[in-house]
Amino acid sequence: MKKITIILAMMLTLTTTWAFTGEKSVNQTALTAFKAEFAGATDASWYADNEFYKVTFTLNDQKLFAFYSTDGEFMAVTRYISSVQLPLFQQYRLRKFYRNAWVSDLFEVATKNGTSYYITLENADTKTVLKSINGSNWSVYKKDKKD
Fold this sequence. Notes:
By secondary structure, this protein is α+β, with helices and mostly antiparallel strands. It has three helices and nine strands, in the order H-E-H-E-E-E-E-H-E-E-E-E. It is elongated, with a radius of gyration of 16 Å.
């Protein structure tokens, strides 16, 4: 579970992916699963890596990203959110412990095992990525000093 979560977090932040030329290049199992799980999705665009498929699409006026294994098995769905969309407990903990930072990135990762949140907080000196898995407290995922 931890490995999948880490991979998904990194996939969402990566900027280099390779686009398929069309749906016929995508594993049929992944296509079928996507069409069943996200009926009504529009503007689907597929990308590939050696280890996964990523489909970017719109559903209910939201931009979503679904991930499938190369065998076509559903891995996760992600979306960018605002801090007011976080569960109340996570909002409270951020306000209590990270008052002097601003949010530069926030996304939700939903898998069959639960929902996780990754937030990037910045201040003048540091950039910190926190994670919260299945409603847990925030924990430091990565912390870097700014140049």
